[in-house]
Structure formats: structure tokens, C-alpha cells
């Protein structure tokens, strides 16, 4: 099974990146691949008219070949980061052939704050559902005070909620594979 990881932050030492690193190490029976969004140009229909730029083509190809995606995102001003929204806008085009259509997607969000990306995840779920992605239903993972969690990363069970969420997402992919026509 191949699962893409899209990180909604470009910061090299982002907490969401640290959670993604944990995931790739914790699940040896699954291949995880980080799908970069930092090189994507701002979405512009004029660019699209002339054919997708190379970075966009690479992004879409990477998303397309994954069995599922986990998006790990911080919360910026009560919503999703612009760089993540830009990537989703590119991936949703053309509407008739979106690489996100019927793609299984899980959402994880981490922040040093106390709300744990609750608002960002609501907005992200709304965007993904408009794109007709299959978002893992009924499950949420809002990691608040993530800096404290990362400070004790070596201790057993530190990331147990992350691990449980990823297990549920893997099961979701297995249960829905081939369901869509």
C-alpha cells in the first residue's frame, strides 16, 4: 500500500513534518511518500490553459498513484495554510478529471496552541468534500500542544493517537478500495 503525505507547512522543522516522520517509521508494512507542494506556482487559469506547469504535473502524478493521502496541516488564522489550499486547487483541476476525485484522504493537524487545528480541519474537510474526495468519516485527530509531545518523542506510546488514527485510515483504504466506479 502506498500512502502520500502532504504537509501543509513549508517550514523545515514543522511539527506536522515531525509527525509525518514518525508515521513513516512506525508503519513498516506501508510505503509512505511525502508529496511536496512548495514548488507549485499560484493557481492561475491562464497557466492551466497553456498546460500544467511541470511542478503541477509532478504533483498530480504523485497524488494519482497513491492508494490514499494523509494531509498533515497546521492552522493559520483559523483556517488552512494558503500553500495547502493552492495545492488542492491545482489538484482539483480539471473538475472532470481531478486527481482527488474518490481518493481516500485522512486529515491530521498539529499546533502548539490549545485548539489543535479544529477550525483548519473543518475547512479542509469542506474543501476536500467539494472536490469529491473520500475523507475518513467520523475520525478526527487534533494534536494540541504538539511541542510538548515532540519533546518527549522517545517515550513509549507518545504518538499512540497518531498511530491509532493511521491504523484506522489504512483500514478505511482497504475497506473502500474498488468501491467507486
Automatic annotation (TrEMBL):
Name the record gives this protein: NADPH-dependent FMN reductase
Domain of life: Bacteria
Documented EC number(s): 1.-.-.-
Pfam families in alphabetical order: FMN_red
UniProt entry keywords in alphabetical sequence: Oxidoreductase
Occurrences of domain NADPH-dependent FMN reductase-like (ranges): 1-146
Cross-referenced SUPFAM superfamilies: Flavoproteins
Family according to the record: Belongs to the azoreductase type 2 family.
InterPro entries: Flavoprotein-like_sf (IPR029039), FMN_Rdtase-like_dom (IPR005025), NAD(P)H-dep_reductase (IPR050712)
Organism for this UniProt entry: Savagea faecisuis
UniProt GO molecular function: oxidoreductase activity
